[in-house]
Design a protein that fits this description.
Order of helices and strands: HEEHHEEEEHEEHEEE
Distance between the termini: 77 Å
Shape: elongated
Radius of gyration: 24 Å
Strand order of the largest sheet: 1-2-3-10
Structural class: alpha+beta
Number of helices: 5
Number of domains: 1
């Protein structure tokens, strides 16, 4: 009986740790920024590890293991003219230009695997007969219902989380956004890099 209890605990812990997670928005306008830089009348503040800080553990793990970094931004235009990101100003790390990724590319790099949760369907292969002291008391397919529900539920949660991430990335896509004089805007970008590189924003057309 003790072994059965221990096995049950292990199975429950495995299922909980393997469950899909809802997406928790980054909301860049609510963050405190720990790095700030000024160049060409443009002030930029940014923050790495925003997926992890918001509790999106599965996506943050993929970001950590991959070669994409997601960065929250706060940009203030201190000049006397409108600045359009990507046309009047570009992102740099030192003297090297930085090219932010398309929101769909970012999502595809860190998204939760929807079909990865289909392994729960294997649970439907078990027997459906419940016996007590050798006597059959039920043949109701509990395992088919329970494991199918777990699989479908996790797949729906993962798919929603991926879609919610994409919606936020599109909402805060900073590329080709116009910033008026004295205006502060917030954004989220993703870059192809494995390290936490310094970022600045430089004017390219004056």
């Amino acid at each position: 009986m003790s072994k059965i209890k221990h096995l049950s605990v292990v199975i429950i812990l495995f299922m909980v740790s393997s469950c899909a997670m809802y997406y928790r928005p980054i909301a860049p306008e609510r963050l405190n920024y720990n790095i700030r830089d000024k160049y060409d009348d443009i002030e930029i503040s940014y923050r790495y590890d925003v997926l992890k800080e918001r509790g999106n553990k599965k996506m943050a793990k993929k970001e950590f293991n991959g070669d994409v970094k997601i960065i929250a931004l706060k940009i203030t235009n201190n000049s006397d003219s409108v600045i359009k990101i990507g046309e009047d100003a570009e992102f740099y790390s030192g003297i090297t230009p930085i090219y932010p990724l398309d929101p769909n590319v970012i999502k595809n790099n860190v998204k939760q695997s929807v079909f990865g949760y289909s392994f729960y369907f294997l649970g439907v292969l078990g027997g459906t007969t419940l016996s007590v002291n050798g006597n059959v008391v039920s043949q109701f397919p509990f395992n088919k219902i329970i494991f199918s529900a777990i699989a479908i539920g996790n797949m729906l949660v993962a798919n929603k989380a991926n879609n919610d991430l994409l919606k936020e990335l599109v909402k805060y896509d900073i590329m080709y956004k116009e910033i008026k004089p004295g205006e502060t805007v917030y954004g989220i970008i993703g870059i192809k890099d494995r390290s936490f590189i310094p970022i600045t924003l430089k004017m390219i057309n004056k």
